[in-house]
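Need the bound structure for hypoxanthine, inputs here:
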Amino acid sequence: MTDLFERLRGTARVLAERTGCERHDVCVVLGSGLGGYPDRIADKAAVPYRDLPGFPIPTAVGHAGTAYSAQMGDNRVLLLSGRAHAYEGHDPGAITFAVRTAVTAGCRAVVLTNAAGACGEGMAAGDLAVIADHVNLAGISALAGPNDERIGPRFTDMTDVYTPELRAKAHAAAARLGQTLREGVYFWFHGPMFETPAEIRLAQALGGSMVGMSTVPEATAARHMGAQVLGISLCTNLAAGISDLPLSHNEVIEAAAAAAERFSALFDELLPTL
Ligand code: HPA
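Answer from helper R.:
Posting the output first, comments after.
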């Protein structure tokens, strides 16, 4: 099999041909329930993941599996509706392939969105929160295995995974809209089971504000390749044990749909400025 570097270049080429865009500037991964955002954009090219060699076909509800290319301000934006998760059985190479392709296609910034459980002080369902940092509790590294120096260094600095300038731009965009945008540390759990209340107490004791089943591998791969990263969580529910209610995926999808308008307004304001 051809090596990862060549496969990324090959898929980036297909993306360029199918979208008619030689380069993209910003990549946005749309998390659970947020995949409808591209519907708001009239002028865009769409490429199904199945036409992009190496892109995994997502199985999770609310993850369509389509890449969209659109002009937003000065930025050519690649919107990825649908992502692969570790809990679906995908290995890190598959989970990170789409984001790695986007960076290969020129993206200097990667925006990762997700649905998450809220466990931070004072946080509530419906909150949007910028990811300040993360803790990897999934027991998986996106960078394990042989390293190709053409893609990135063997040892990646994780000091500022979530680029301070992009976080500031997100807060500025929210402030212009009069939106409340929180910020906190995201804890990655493997899933697909939701966390136990004891796991949530662990996350809280270690300073966690959001818990979820994605984002960390893509953020790590993007940093490995030198791209800037912004992470935004939509808190769809209070994390396990905080309220008396049991958790369900339907609740996640419904809460994401309820917040979609606010999320979309933030993106309309933010994406052209990145
Ligand atoms: N835990 C993990 N992932 C999630 C949650 C949660 O409570 N809500 C939405 N995604």
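Comments: The first helix runs from residue 4 to 19. The mean pLDDT is 95.
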